[in-house]
Write a structure and sequence with these properties.
By secondary structure, this protein is α/β, with parallel strands linked by helices. The chain contains twelve helices and seven strands. Helix 1 packs across helix 12, helix 2 crosses helix 3 and helix 4 packs antiparallel against helix 8.
């Protein structure tokens, strides 16, 4: 079965696949795809462990998602496609583009890293994500979400009470055991680092980060230094979740990039 997805836009338009972050879903991209659907055929996925793709416990892997993305694109009779990925979804987009580079027109990576460089870092992250996975299994989604969004990474999101409540309400639709599987399977601690592949990347890329997210601003700048095919967009007033915190600036930036790169 294909991953759950929605499609908007003309059938003959260039295909853009949208990959959400951890705890997200295909509905996260509605504002963005509504802007792009005149020029592009926008395909928004529910990744394994999320939404309508909660699925089998063995399916939370980048290899599986890469296969499913290609199968879906093939079903649309598209020879090539682009991807927009946020955080975890951005890591998946990087993985897909490293394997199927000849089929990828462009990638937009929001708050994304090619991975942790050392085994000690990855081991520590696996342990951390295992603790989070056990927490959601034992305490459920409400307690888990409260704790998850108290992390410093989401400080700017948490400073917007109405926005954080909307985000949490959407995340509550996920099933705890499926969330735990996604945490374990898609953990950056289990990901083979893609820095070497990134150094040789020839796929046009836009790296988006919020100016209040110092960690991923630094990652974007480091990625920019090693890849001539990319450009960086730092969005003022936004943190880690740029497309939620500054949707107008975010959507404008990626719309301009995709139109210029794919030449619609």
């Amino acid at each position: 079965m294909p991953l759950a997805h929605t499609i908007v836009g003309p059938q003959d338009a260039p295909v853009v696949v949208f990959l959400h972050g951890f705890l997200g879903g295909k509905c996260d991209w509605a504002t963005t795809t509504n802007l792009l659907d005149e020029d592009f055929r926008c395909v928004s996925l529910d990744l394994p462990g999320h939404g309508e793709s909660a699925g089998d416990p063995n399916l939370c892997s980048m290899e599986y998602v890469a296969t499913k993305v290609i199968e879906l694109v093939d079903s649309l009779d598209a020879g090539s496609f682009s991807m927009v990925g946020y955080s975890m979804g951005g890591r998946i987009a990087l993985y897909v583009s490293s394997i199927y580079a000849m089929r990828v027109d462009a990638i937009v990576l929001e708050s994304t890293s090619p991975g942790l460089k050392t085994e000690s870092e990855r081991a520590a992250r696996r342990e951390q994500d295992e603790r989070w996975a056990q927490m959601v299994e034992i305490k459920g989604m409400v307690a888990f979400l409260d704790a998850w969004y108290e992390q410093p990474l989401f400080e700017s999101l948490a400073s917007r009470p109405k926005l954080i409540e909307r985000v949490k309400a959407k995340r509550l639709k996920n099933e705890p055991r499926a969330v735990a599987r996604a945490l374990r399977g898609f953990s950056v601690g289990r990901q083979t680092p893609l820095w070497d592949e990134w150094d040789g990347n020839q796929v046009p890329a836009l790296l988006v980060a919020g100016e209040l997210d110092a960690k991923y601003c630094a990652v974007a700048r480091e990625m920019e230094q090693t890849c001539s095919a990319c450009r960086v967009a730092i969005v003022p007033g936004a943190g880690h979740n740029v497309h939620e915190e500054a949707p107008n600036e975010y959507n404008s930036a990626i719309h301009t990039f995709l139109r210029e790169t794919i030449k619609v």
